[in-house]
Design brief:
mainly beta, 7-stranded mixed β-sheet, 4-stranded antiparallel β-sheet
């Protein structure tokens, strides 16, 4: 059974930082590319960042370039998203995503950037 445990979300002031974690089980984590998506109220889900199965290739949406860093630890079956210099427009539910032959989604963690 595929399961994800996402953590690290919360309320942060503009300019602050958060580190999201997503720990997976039930599939061969090291064989899957991993991504973070987000969905703000009344908006479509959008890709934030992605990382290859071995971690050697990363990509970012323009909204997060220079502020967000995606990484993974295959020994811990965990993918991370370090978010710095957060802005109110980063407020959203953040989801981890695993993709290879199948696609799996985490349950989401709320990030709220507000003063």
């Amino acid at each position: 059974q595929v399961q994800f445990v996402e953590s690290g979300g919360g309320l942060v002031q503009p300019g602050g930082s958060l580190r999201l974690s997503c720990t997976a089980s039930g599939f061969t984590f090291s064989s899957y590319a991993m991504s973070w998506y987000r969905q703000a109220p009344e908006k479509e889900r959008e890709l934030v960042a992605g990382i290859s199965s071995a971690g050697g290739i990363t990509s970012y949406a323009d909204s997060g370039k220079g502020r967000f860093t995606i990484s993974r630890d295959n020994a811990k079956n965990t993918v991370y998203l370090q978010m710095n210099s957060l802005k109110p427009e980063d407020t959203a539910v953040y989801y981890c995503n695993a993709r290879r032959f199948n696609t799996y989604w985490g349950q989401g963690t709320q990030v709220t950037v507000s003063s």
